[in-house]
Amino acid sequence: MDEPINYVDKINNYYQGLGYPAYDWTVNTETPFTPLRKPLHECRVSMLTSGGISHHTRPPFNPLAKNDLRVDDVDFAATPSDFEVNDGYYDTRDAKKDLNVIFPIERLRELADEGVIGSVAPRLWSGFMGRIYKRGEVVERVAPELVEELKKDKVDLFVLVPA
Amino acid sequence: MVEAAGIPTVYVSTGRDLGRQVLPPRSIFLNFPMGNPFGRPQDKAMQRRILMDALTVAAEAEKGGELVDMPYDWGAPVKMLFELEDAALYKPQAPDPTTGKQPG
What we know:
The structure holds two protein chains of two kinds. By secondary structure, chain A is an alpha/beta fold. Chain A has a domain at 50-161. Chain A is built from four helices and seven strands, in the order H-E-E-E-E-H-H-E-E-H-E. In chain A, the strands form two sheets. In chain A, strands 1, 3, 5, 6 and 7 form a five-stranded mixed sheet that branches. A two-stranded antiparallel ribbon of chain A has the order 2-4. Chain A is globular. Chain B is an alpha/beta fold. Chain B has a domain at 11-79. Helices cover 23% and strands 12% of the residues of chain B. Chain B contains two helices and three strands, in the order βαβαβ. Chain B has a three-stranded parallel sheet with strand order 1-2-3, sandwiched between helices. In chain B, helix 1 (16-22) links the parallel strand 1 (9-13) and strand 2 (26-29). Chains A and B meet through helix 1, helix 2, helix 3, helix 4 and strand 7 of A and strand 1, helix 1 and helix 2 of B.
């Protein structure tokens, strides 16, 4: 198997080669930790994608936008083919063919139907799609608001899928 | 943020170095292209296996910062977007407001 891509170096080189200033990457040296307190078969699971994925009843995400802090709730029962994918940081062709390659909502529902997990939360999430230069606003406002919504839905475990 | 508020999280990553510097509480790494963390279209078995891997790491992790490398092979060179031949893939435009799709 090939060595993993070094994205930080490649992205820095690419954009600085185009004349952009260096991106101020998030570098954390500590991480919080909350143990899962229930067995999986009792857990209510939600999931977030940052892949520019919008349900067709909502406006599309604009891959050219900067500091788009929008976060959409997604009905857990949604149909994968009812979404649009607009993102400039990954090859979206496979996601357009089968949303489950990046946001596996059908696989999550199957695990709930089989009793492997307790349930899928009523709301899944799509947002934080990139070009965010306002980390403070994410940390101080948007993320805490999302936490409150997760608590309303009694989410036990949150699966994060960055893109 | 979410983890600190008491809700356990697990991160499914295709960028190993990006994940290392953000240092999420728990993560799995797939050496797959960035748009394919759960594998290929219609490969339900692999999509399910990777989702189960993530849930299992979430259930079994005992300390923060754990990163588990998944052994799956993409079966082709894993390329970054800028390395693809068709520049339209990484130079997207504003979507059509009506259809939500890329123009053209």
